[in-house]
Amino acid sequence: MDRIAGAVTAAAAAFCLTGCGDPLVITGDAPGVMRVVAGTPEQAGDSLAETATESMLNHPSGVALGLDGKTYVADRANSRIVIVTAAGRASVLIDHSGRTREPRLQGPAEIALDGNGGLLVADPPGGRVWRIDLETRAATPIAGTGGGPGSDTTVALETRLLEPTGVTAAADGSVYVTERSGHRLRRVDPAGGIETLAGDGMPSFEGDGGAAAEARLNQPAGLVLAGSVLYIADGGNQRVRTLDLSSGTIQTVAGAGGTGFGGDGGPAVDALLHDPVAVTLTDDGSVLFIADSANNRIRMVRLESGRIFTFAGTGEDAYSGDLLSASETSLAAPLGLAATPFNILLVADTGHHIVYRTSLGVLPSP
Known about the structure:
With 366 residues, the chain is an all-beta fold. It has strands at 24-26, 33-38, 60-65, 71-75, 80-84, 90-95, 111-113, 118-123, 128-133, 139-143, 164-169, 175-179, 184-188, 194-198, 220-226, 229-234, 239-244, 249-254, 276-281, 287-292, 297-302, 307-312, 324-325, 336-339, 344-349, 354-362.
C-alpha cells in the first residue's frame, strides 16, 4: 500500500484501545468510529450514484488515499478503479469491465500511488502491473505479459508474472511487486528492467535471518515500504516479513506460521494469523496494520515492543453496521489497507462490498 499523504480532516475525539501500552487513539466524528465511505453494505453491484455510499462495489480490494483527499478503490470484480472525493462523490477513474480488446485490466488487487501523478495497479488474473496516469487516465502496463508467452527475463514487459497481487512504489521510481502464485518478490526499475529479490517459485518458508535472495515465500501478497524496509504479507506462510533493502536480509515480524487466531497481547512473532494479505504502517512507522483476512480482523503490531493486538473486527463475518467502534465492527475477509501521514486508515471490507475509514492518532503514555 502507498503511504502518500492524504489531506482529510476530522473533528477531534478519542478512543483508547486498552492494553496496548502507549494507547492508540482513534480520532474522528465519534470515539472509535469506523465509517463507511464507499459501497452499499452487503450489496454487490456496479451502479454509481451521486454519493459513494449510495453506490455499489463488487469485492473492493486495494485502497489508496491521495494528496487531494481522493480515495481510490480497486473495485475488483467490476474490473475498475473508483474515485471517492473528500466530499463523498463517486466516479470512475478507469473501467475495463466488458472490454474485449487487449490489454485490459481484469481484476485489480492492491493499488498504490507512485508520488509522480500515477496510480499503480496489480492485476492478478491479468498477469500485469499497470500505471494509470491520474491526469489523462491513460492505462499502461509496466510489467508482465498478460498471461501470454513469456519467461523469467530481465525485461519487465517480457516477463510472465503469476498473479501479481501486491504493489508499492519507492521514491527513486522503483516498483515492488509480489507474485502470489509465483511465490516471488520482484523489483521493476525505472528503465523497465526486472529482478527477483526473494523467492524461487517454490512455496515454502525458508531463509529467515539470512539473505532474501536465498529465501522462499508462500503466496506473498500486500506490500508497504518504509524507508529501506519492505514489509511483505507472506500469506501462505501465515507471517508478515521484512526485507531490508540495504542489507538484503529477511526476517519475520509477525506470525508463528500456524493457521488460526491467537496471541493478542503477546509477541507478534508468536501470534497466529490466517491468510494475512495486506499491510500498512502509520506515518511514524510505529504501528503495523495487518489485514488478517481469514480471521475477519485487522491486527496491529506496535513495532517498538513487538506486541500484537486486534484493532478491528470481531471474528464474525455478519455485517454489524456503520459508525461503530473498531472493536465492535464485524469485517468479512478484508483485503485492502492504506494509512496516511494524516493518520487516516482505510479498510477494504471485501466481503461486505464496502470501504471503511477511520482516523488514527498516538498519544504519549499517561
